[in-house]
Design goal:
The complex is a heterodimer of chains A (408) and B (128). Chain A contains 16 helices and no strands. Chain A has 408 residues and is mostly helical. Chain B is mainly α and 128 residues long. Chain B contains 5 helices and no strands. Classes of the chains: A mainly alpha (408), B mainly alpha (128). The interface between A and B is medium-sized, with 25 and 25 residues.
């Protein structure tokens, strides 16, 4: 019974923790521009993150080494270094976008000046990371992030054409605006598969001291948690498709996302939506700060882990603090956080193979994984999604240029 | 070689200047869509303020953001267009300014249902 309860708590945290600022921006924009036509892409993105999270969680459980650690050991210094640099650059853009997103959500809730809220956001994140144990951080942000389910209620209340919604899950290519459609497809997959998620997931397995007995928990968390998280992404797109698409509204700011809950549900819907966004994005900011610190510490073989006291893992502690400060410095220059989000997602797509190829190789290494190496099903999905990832990583930059970053 | 490089630089400079000083048909269409989008979204927001379904901080910040976007569109439309497009460009510029002004009213009175009602009607007309 206790085990089932633990699994349920983990899954709930995974649902609330799945959505970040990139998912919010791309799902709402895709719904506003193409209605329900891109829902099938969300399914592909969720499938990819489920497959690779399960894989890297399994690697962590079996080897007691997180992704970057295993990559460095099994694939050598050079491959590891390329993977580290690419991952860190994307992490940096991601954390800047998430910190900007926190300040925007706070501003919409409180009406205070943006830069003041940026400072408060970074200080708040620092205090939370310093003061709370790992499990609490993950769960508090995951659970409160669940208030984003208000977007599912909003989508229902807007009474969309359910036949159109259902046909959106069938893969197809439109007859016009193909490049723009492809750009959003790339962005949606990129937003669902951002590298920090797998780095954080595998390091989290070590932080929570998972053993081979927890392989079932790993599978349940990855499959059920991320799939239900994908449900939130679909809810955002359906809401936008039902409310903004028919009116020709193209979202340009986070306020449009809040309006998506306010119009059908009033003040309560608005406040719940903004709190959900705040905690989902806040959780993602912490995940990406940790992810940056995990990667560097694991690559260079330093002590790491939130379960250690800061004095016992000083370079890891400095690492997550540096990530927070660097993200803050990027966004405090005055760049638009929504634009930073779009760039972070598109550049993360370019770097995706450098994260996902090593995971697949290590998970297939029988000398390393023993009987827990990838089986046939894991490889069919792993290779299939890798092919998708390779295609979109090549297409991302040309599509960004052709569509003027999705502006058409 | 130096002459070729200079010529290329000159061409790039001329192209860059030319690109920013006139509004093409494509840019005009894009800005028209942007202004329509801002007006339609502003009308939804104003309707919620009118019915007491929004919060003052949200209405203030979001109407301010939308007003800034409309300002940006008006500035982009302030550059001259070709003779066949100029009348339309002026109309769109005036529409962008009107949308921005209406949203600025909501920004100044984010909790006044009366002002919101006026703004909503104006924005509904401008988004039509």
């Amino acid at each position: 019974m206790k085990k089932i309860f633990e699994i349920a708590l983990g899954i709930l945290a995974a649902i609330g923790g799945f959505v970040d600022i990139g998912d919010i921006v791309f799902n709402v924009a895709a719904g506003a521009m193409f209605g329900f036509e891109l829902l099938w892409v969300v399914v592909i993105g969720v499938g990819a993150i489920v497959t690779y999270s399960e894989m890297c969680g399994r690697v962590a459980v079996v080897s007691q080494r997180a992704v970057m650690d295993a990559v460095r050991e099994r694939l050598g210094y050079r491959v590891g270094l390329v993977s580290l640099v690419a991952g860190q650059l994307v992490n940096l853009l991601t954390i800047a976008a998430e910190i900007g997103g926190i300040a925007l959500a706070l501003q919409l809730l409180a009406g205070l000046p943006f830069r003041v809220l940026l400072v408060l956001a970074v200080l708040g994140l620092g205090i939370v990371i310093w003061a709370l144990p790992f499990e609490w951080i993950e769960r508090v942000f995951g659970y409160v992030g669940l208030t984003m389910l208000v977007f599912a209620v909003a989508a229902l209340k807007l009474n969309p054409n359910w036949n159109s919604v259902a046909s959106g899950f069938v893969p197809h290519v439109p007859s016009q605006d193909v490049a723009l459609y492809a750009f959003f497809a790339v962005g949606l997959i990129g937003a669902a598969t951002v590298p920090y998620e797998v780095y954080f997931y595998s390091s989290g397995a070590i932080e929570e001291r998972w053993t081979p007995k927890d392989l079932g928990l790993n599978k349940a968390n990855a499959i059920i948690g991320y799939s239900l998280g994908g449900f939130l992404s679909c809810a955002l797109m359906i809401m936008a498709g039902a409310l903004f698409y028919p009116r020709g509204i193209t979202p340009e700011s986070l306020g449009t996302v809040g309006l998506g809950a306010e119009v059908p549900l009033g003040q309560v819907g608005l406040v719940l939506a903004l709190i959900g966004v705040l905690f989902a994005v806040g959780g993602a900011a912490i995940d990406s700060a940790f992810s940056g610190a995990y990667n560097v510490a694991q690559f260079f073989g330093w002590e790491w882990g939130k379960y250690r006291r800061p004095v016992d893992a000083p370079r890891f502690t400095v690492g997550w603090m540096a990530m927070l400060v660097a993200g803050f410095l990027i966004v405090v220059t005055g760049v638009d956080p929504i634009q930073v989000t779009e760039y972070s997602v598109i550049f993360s797509v370019v770097a995706l193979p450098l994260t996902y190829v090593p995971i697949l190789l290590v998970a297939n290494d029988r000398a390393y994984m023993g009987r827990h190496a990838n089986g046939r099903i894991a490889n069919v999905f792993g290779i299939g999604y890798l092919a998708v990832i390779l295609v979109i990583s090549v297409a991302a930059i040309p599509l960004m240029i052709i569509t003027n970053m999705g502006q058409g | 070689m130096r002459r070729v490089t200079l010529s290329i630089l000159l061409l790039v400079a001329v192209a860059a200047c030319g690109g920013s000083s006139t509004v093409s048909a494509e840019q005009l269409e894009k800005q028209r869509e942007t202004v329509h989008s801002i007006a339609a979204e502003g009308a939804l927001l104003a309707a919620d303020v009118e019915r007491g379904r929004s919060t003052p901080p949200f209405a203030k910040i979001h109407s301010g953001d939308l007003s800034d976007l409309a300002d940006r569109a008006a500035k982009a439309l302030a550059n001259p267009a070709g003779p066949s497009l100029d009348a339309e460009r002026r109309r769109e510029e005036a529409r962008a300014v009107a949308v921005s002004d209406a949203l600025a009213q909501l920004l100044a009175h984010p909790d006044d249902p009366g002002v919101a009602s006026t703004v909503r009607r104006k924005l509904e007309r401008l988004s039509g």
